[in-house]
């Protein structure tokens, strides 16, 4: 896949947003320059069934308008039903090669990893990209596990230099540059964008940090 699509990967579901409307937040984030979006509808009060499908379709349409890939977390059947651009699964979400078979070769498959071994397994099984983390402490995921530290990004890049990869977990505007300099294709964030006072501005600022760290060009 095109690594540049992973530069600023925004993840959200309705349960991450308090009173905010997901489509409003997504639109602001898209205006601010996110390069990928993952619908991750989890936890207490998460939408299900038709309500979730409708939301996914709306997210997909918005993402299409901005030519940003729309990825569904966990739910392979939902991803297929709404013809999402891809699906993202964790270590516990089933066999990676089976999911690849189910979605076909044209769709993006992302896999969460916590070690170099995980990343090698995911790559061999047909992942287009991996998430590596949690790099730092995060309040956005229950049982996220002990932070692996940004050094793991470099270790994964050294072993799998061609594999697109995003760092995830506790990444703020201040920490994003470090993650990119370790060799990540981009950063995946929930709270740095979803909880920002000004979502569009937060996305724009983060994108600037990432561009500067990866190219040396100030935006
Ligand atoms: N997977 C590992 S950490 C995490 C996920 C989904 C949560 C990331 O959220 P935040 O707010 O950017 O730390
Ligand atoms: Mg999962």
UniProtKB/TrEMBL annotation:
<feature type="binding site">
    <location>
        <begin position="38"/>
        <end position="42"/>
    </location>
    <ligand>
        <name>4-amino-2-methyl-5-(diphosphooxymethyl)pyrimidine</name>
    </ligand>
</feature>
<dbReference type="InterPro" id="IPR034291">
    <property type="entry name" value="TMP_synthase"/>
</dbReference>
<dbReference type="GO" id="GO:0000287">
    <property type="term" value="F:magnesium ion binding"/>
</dbReference>
<comment type="similarity">
    <text>Belongs to the thiamine-phosphate synthase family.</text>
</comment>
<feature type="binding site">
    <location>
        <position position="112"/>
    </location>
    <ligand>
        <name>4-amino-2-methyl-5-(diphosphooxymethyl)pyrimidine</name>
    </ligand>
</feature>
<dbReference type="InterPro" id="IPR036206">
    <property type="entry name" value="ThiamineP_synth_sf"/>
</dbReference>
<feature type="binding site">
    <location>
        <begin position="190"/>
        <end position="191"/>
    </location>
    <ligand>
        <name>2-[(2R,5Z)-2-carboxy-4-methylthiazol-5(2H)-ylidene]ethyl phosphate</name>
    </ligand>
</feature>
<dbReference type="GO" id="GO:0009228">
    <property type="term" value="P:thiamine biosynthetic process"/>
</dbReference>
<feature type="domain" description="Thiamine phosphate synthase/TenI">
    <location>
        <begin position="8"/>
        <end position="193"/>
    </location>
</feature>
<feature type="binding site">
    <location>
        <position position="141"/>
    </location>
    <ligand>
        <name>4-amino-2-methyl-5-(diphosphooxymethyl)pyrimidine</name>
    </ligand>
</feature>
<dbReference type="InterPro" id="IPR013785">
    <property type="entry name" value="Aldolase_TIM"/>
</dbReference>
<keyword id="KW-0479">Metal-binding</keyword>
<keyword id="KW-0460">Magnesium</keyword>
<feature type="binding site">
    <location>
        <position position="170"/>
    </location>
    <ligand>
        <name>2-[(2R,5Z)-2-carboxy-4-methylthiazol-5(2H)-ylidene]ethyl phosphate</name>
    </ligand>
</feature>
<dbReference type="GO" id="GO:0005737">
    <property type="term" value="C:cytoplasm"/>
</dbReference>
<comment type="function">
    <text>Condenses 4-methyl-5-(beta-hydroxyethyl)thiazole monophosphate (THZ-P) and 2-methyl-4-amino-5-hydroxymethyl pyrimidine pyrophosphate (HMP-PP) to form thiamine monophosphate (TMP).</text>
</comment>
<dbReference type="GO" id="GO:0009229">
    <property type="term" value="P:thiamine diphosphate biosynthetic process"/>
</dbReference>
<dbReference type="Pfam" id="PF02581">
    <property type="entry name" value="TMP-TENI"/>
</dbReference>
<dbReference type="GO" id="GO:0004789">
    <property type="term" value="F:thiamine-phosphate diphosphorylase activity"/>
</dbReference>
<keyword id="KW-0784">Thiamine biosynthesis</keyword>
<feature type="binding site">
    <location>
        <position position="73"/>
    </location>
    <ligand>
        <name>4-amino-2-methyl-5-(diphosphooxymethyl)pyrimidine</name>
    </ligand>
</feature>
<keyword id="KW-0808">Transferase</keyword>
<feature type="binding site">
    <location>
        <begin position="138"/>
        <end position="140"/>
    </location>
    <ligand>
        <name>2-[(2R,5Z)-2-carboxy-4-methylthiazol-5(2H)-ylidene]ethyl phosphate</name>
    </ligand>
</feature>
<feature type="binding site">
    <location>
        <position position="74"/>
    </location>
    <ligand>
        <name>Mg(2+)</name>
    </ligand>
</feature>
<comment type="pathway">
    <text>Cofactor biosynthesis; thiamine diphosphate biosynthesis; thiamine phosphate from 4-amino-2-methyl-5-diphosphomethylpyrimidine and 4-methyl-5-(2-phosphoethyl)-thiazole: step 1/1.</text>
</comment>
<protein>
    <recommendedName>
        <fullName>Thiamine-phosphate synthase</fullName>
        <ecNumber>2.5.1.3</ecNumber>
    </recommendedName>
</protein>
<feature type="binding site">
    <location>
        <position position="93"/>
    </location>
    <ligand>
        <name>Mg(2+)</name>
    </ligand>
</feature>
<dbReference type="InterPro" id="IPR022998">
    <property type="entry name" value="ThiamineP_synth_TenI"/>
</dbReference>
